[in-house]
Amino acid sequence: MKQNIRYNPIKLIQALALVLLLTSCSSPNLEKGRADPTVLVALVLIFVLLALVIYLVITLRSIRKKALDFEERYRRLLDDATLGIFQATLDGKNVMVNPAHAHMFGYEGPEELLSLINNVGTQLYVHPERRQEIVACLLETGKAATENLYRRKDGSTFPGYLHAWLVRDKAGNPQYIEGFVEDITERKQTEERLKHQVQRLEVLRQVDNAITSSTDLEAVLRVVLKHIRSQLGVDAADILVLDPKSQRLECAAYAGFKTNKIAATSLRLGEGYAGTAASERRMIRASKIGTQTDHLLASPMLGEEEFVLYYGVPLLMKNQVNGVLEVFSRTMLNTDADWENFLQILAGQAAIAVENASLYENLKAANSKLLFAYDETIEAWARALEIHDKETKDHSQRVTENTLVMAIALGIKDGEELVQAYRGALLHDIGKMGIPDTILNKPGPLTKEEWEVMKQHPNYAYELLSPIEFLQKALDIPYCHHEKWDGTGYQRGLKGEEIPLTARIFAVIDVWDALLADRPYRPAWTEEQARQYLREQAGKHFDPRVVEVFLQRF
Ligand code: C2E
Ligand code: SIN
Ligand code: SIN
Ligand code: FE
Ligand code: FE
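^ thats the input. predicted complex w/ fe (iii) ion below
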């Protein structure tokens, strides 16, 4: 409370002057009209001196208070930050951290962490050799930005991203290190999943190649089985094909069994797991099958194989069953929804292969089913991306739909082109995978360096997608969506109609959607503000024709 009272130096001096004046007026000398000049001068001098002293004291106090305020605010900032911030000496023995930093490593707070670290050094949570490398890099370049493996109090580890820089004293000698660490577990997991998805996409492509380049059913099915075993981690798999005449399921291909008894399998619909999967058109899952002499087993001799997990998936083509895919594992697997989904997709591929080879009909339908399998994978991919970029939930789906509406409104009729626009829009965010979370989710404006990183995202998209053959034509949007009509955009500074039409359409839709959403760096705009912005940018950022059509429709 006391600290909040403000002393106004001017007022104090005025008050003092008043007191002095009153005392001098009431002095007996004055009354008699014989003012003594020395007394007067002395009084004025004392007055000036006193005023000066008071003024100085008060000014000093307020300066000190400001410094204290600043320190207090600064400390609160560190205490409340969600980012782990640290300062350390070069030898790592003398470290200061904020609470978030200590919590990241599983400690109660800075005191607990520091009491340990200031004894044993930073090897408490980072490998000493690794730290040496970091310090070497800091000494050489003045900063470090690396991914490291950190150890928590309970011994578990997590991947963290370290940004650190070296602070030098006035003479230029290294003094201490400061920086922050970000827990990137979630990002790593998404990346891992993404790698998985890319791998699966590649598998689909290989199966696709096998189907279109071979009429030998068994050869194609063997390719399918090979990928099923490696991608799904199962020990054995087989494909039973429904003979249309006898209506029995016969073994057409198998892999991974200890014996070849499975080759003799011949089941009626409804008989065994496989027959049930076919007659009921549903996937069947069974565990602990090795311990039962189960009458439902596809083949009685499977007992010798010691399988513990079984899946039977009907092969469906235009709603007709044409076979069953069976997979077996000798150990329990972690079969989550993702796993089962890929199993179903591969069963879809096997169904196409069977259809192609044995029935020789409707190749076109088969192709569209094949493409459908790709698109399912792309959609799963886009969903994985939204996890990375929390702010843009459903953004991909929305801009994709709007892109198709606008593409049709602007006269794109070719089905192939629309499909490519669909995939491109869905994947336009893919390049964000390469941008660190600290930049992507930064609550304020970007620095020049951060902006340089951010501007790479269309390039990352290009690098990621261009090796995938069937996505080549879908690249226009991910690669060119930040080009501007007047040539001032990135990645290549294309101008006017040099920019692919779908990318020009997409730019309007993406910005519209971005402006209407809250971003980490600003709140959402109103529709009227966004509309005004598009109008203003027609001919600068955007193709004016696209803006015109857009404003009529949205
Ligand atoms: P985003 O947030 O999805 O925005 C996409 C595009 O919409 C932007 O491309 C820009 O053309 C437009 N846009 C979005 N918000 C605004 C806005 O407040 N004002 C104006 N005039 N236009 C806006 P741009 O500029 O190339 O940025 C690409 C991405 O870079 C953004 O995607 C966002 O992820 C990031 N970014 C841009 N500026 C900042 C920033 O100040 N802070 C942070 N943390 N990120 C930023
Ligand atoms: C330090 O090296 O002083 C801290 C290193 C880190 O937190 O990664
Ligand atoms: C991206 O979409 O590629 C990043 C942010 C944006 O421009 O929407
Ligand atoms: Fe972008
Ligand atoms: Fe976007």
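The two ends are 57 Å apart (CA to CA).
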